[in-house]
Amino acid sequence: QVQLVESGGGSVQAGGSLRVSCAASKNTVCMGWFRQAPGKKREGVASISRDGTPTYADSVKGRFTISQDNANNTPYLQMNSLKPEDTAMYYCAAGSVRRGGYCLLLPAYFNYWGQGTQVTVAS
Length: 123
Description:
This protein is an all-beta fold. The strands form 2 sheets. Strands 2, 4, 5, 6, 9, 10 and 11 form a 7-stranded mixed beta sheet that branches. The chain has no helices and 11 strands. The protein has strands at residues 4-7, 10-13, 18-24, 30-36, 43-49, 54-56, 64-69, 74-79, 88-95, 110-113, 117-122.
């Protein structure tokens, strides 16, 4: 079992920045960030493998950066140039499946989920 607790969400104006973090009870092969807006499917945002290899959704490339502190089992998601369409509940997830060295942004590949932290971007 892996327990995950997100923190750092909040409200910001468009163009602003936020950083969310995830306290994990143990390190896993893959850590990921997903988001879900009301009425929409959960979508992958970014993931990172234990060796530090990141994967990003096209919608956030160049704006978001995922990183992790392996010593403290804490992945971070730095979100810059935020847009109103980034508004969603953001979930941290842990999994053990890699393909070609990457942690794919598919919810089915992640076994453990946090409760989520809300990010709201005002226009």
